Amino acid sequence: MIGQPLKLAAAFMLSFTPLMAPAADQIPNTLLDRAEAHQPDYLRTLEQLVSIDSGTGQEEGIAKVQTILVDRLEALGADVSVTSASPSVGSNIIGTIKGTGKAKFLLMVHYDTVFGPGTVIERPFRKDEARAYGPGVADAKGGIAMILHSLKLLKEQSFEQFGTITVLFNPDEETGSAGSKAVIADLARQHDYVFSYEPPEKEAVTVATNGINAVHLSVKGKASHAGSAPEAGRNAVMELAYQLVRLKDLGSPEKGTTVNWTIVRGGDKRNIIPASAVAEGDMRYSDLSEYDRVLSEGTKLIQKKLIPDTEVMFRIDKGRPPLVSNPGSKQLAERAQSLYSAIGRNLEPVAMRFGTDAGYAYIPGTNKPAILETMGVVGAGLHSPEEYIDLSSIAPRLYLSVSMIISLSKKELTVAE
Ligand SMILES: [Zn+2]
Questions:
Q1: How remote is the CA of residue 311 from the centroid of ligand 1, in Å?
Q2: pLDDT digits (tens, 9 = 90+) for 293-304
Q3: Alpha carbon distance 316, 328 (integer Å)
Q4: Which pLDDT tens digit goes with each residue over 154-166?
Q5: CA 226 to CA 277: how far, in whole Å?
Q6: Is 112 considered catalytic here?
Q7: From ligand 1's centre to the CA of 353, what distance in Å?
Q8: Where is the active site (predicted)?
Q9: 273, 288, 318 — which closes off a domain?
Q10: Does 416 fall in a domain?
Q11: 131 and 158 in one domain?
């Protein structure tokens, strides 16, 4: 008698199994459902992170966030190493999770913000129907939470078909990543894919970013009394003004290069012909050859002077390099688009004028690693009190992040190295 109902139960289950198992095209929606279920948890993580002031260089806040991130990574099963990010305050936090497959992923974003101490008390984390607000909520604490909850979702599903997932949280992006850029470049070389979790302004992924350089112009003249012997002086401020006008068009609209003079200093006392003057400017570019062009054009232009016997110098200090438009990033964006279209959404591949740490991960002339930027949560108003994230983007972006790892683990890109 006992056997009979069991048999019946087995037959019942067998006959219903095909109906209960999700069809292949339902899998994306199942993952999206799981991502949606994670949203409250994601927001709790985000609130915890946003509620600590961690402006670049703020030792106490940076250390507090660091402790949370190390704990969270360890709880997710990562091996965690923490190394000083000198000369910056804080540490580079590196978590590693080993899988059973081949593909190696680097997921990275920064945990410093641009906001001073006391900002959290002034305008703490809050949310309304559509948005969440607070210092660094999008840039880039929303991205940190995105990484942590992507790992959590993968773990929940026992997905281990990746080779390695490495997480890097750095403390100094907002001031140029002096203490993390070498780590980023080094880690990037050891991975197949790099995802950077800066926030996109809309439903987009970023395939190219600008490089940032500082341009400098300095003039040496000769001091003299402005009232009794002006002719004995060589006015550095006047020469600087003349050169600034000569150097006003160093950018190139065709190549997307901009050069904007933003700071001038010169003169000390009203009755002294100034002996020195300097100017600084901001250069953005995405074509690597633009450094040489701007330097040689600038150097040529300053040969002609307004005031004889002044000395004029022009130089460019290299800053964050660009993520140059490349086939690897394009293919990653295509994969992302197709995964997004599986949940009925559009995703736009964009080039952006910001410079980000993705530039340090990019190796000119190769397609490895393939790099995708702005994998974070959709947000805007960065670096301002209006900064927010779009709550409706949390689940789809979480789905995107997780499904990219799953998809690339199962089927790698075909882009040549
Ligand atoms: Zn950022």
A1: 39
A2: 999 999 999 999
A3: 29
A4: 999 999 999 999 9
A5: 16
A6: yes
A7: 13
A8: 112, 173 (proton acceptor)
A9: 318
A10: no
A11: yes
